[in-house]
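Researcher: Let's do a round of design. I'm pasting the structure tokens now; please hold your answer until I've finished.
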């Protein structure tokens, strides 16, 4: 085993057996630079497959509008029970109106969810009222007592 002084690589640098030898230019003129196989992008253009305009900025969403939509949709089948349909529908409509006001002030993006909550909430209230009226009419005509 041989001793290598400190600061030197004990394995040494071996020449690359696959490297091609550099040959001087036989004509003595400088060669033009070699182009890339697919070319370079033109100035002002971006790389291929890149998003040229960037991603769209994400707008903030109003969570109350989502809740209003869910509660408003639930109010429609809940109207089978007259009082429940009225209460749940009113809650959906009120939350929808509050979220519409917040969306207008803050510039948020889910206005359609708030509008859906308002419309479905009012439909639930209307169906609950109709169900309550129908129940009262049937009860006064003797159909409610079994």
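Researcher: That's everything. Go ahead.
Model: Designed sequence:
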């Amino acid at each position: 085993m041989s001793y290598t002084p400190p600061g030197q690589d004990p394995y040494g640098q071996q020449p690359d057996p696959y490297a091609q030898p550099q040959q001087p230019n036989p004509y003595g003129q400088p060669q033009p630079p070699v182009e890339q196989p697919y070319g370079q992008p033109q100035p002002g253009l971006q790389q291929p497959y890149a998003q040229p305009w960037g991603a769209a900025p994400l707008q903030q969403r109003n969570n109350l509008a989502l809740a209003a939509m869910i509660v408003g949709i639930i109010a429609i089948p809940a109207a089978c029970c007259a009082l429940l349909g009225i209460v749940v529908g009113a809650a959906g409509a009120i939350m929808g109106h509050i979220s519409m006001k917040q969306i207008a002030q803050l510039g948020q993006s889910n206005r359609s969810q708030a509008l859906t909550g308002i419309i479905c909430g009012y439909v639930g209230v209307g169906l609950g009222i109709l169900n309550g009226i129908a129940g009262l009419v049937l009860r006064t005509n003797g159909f409610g007592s079994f």
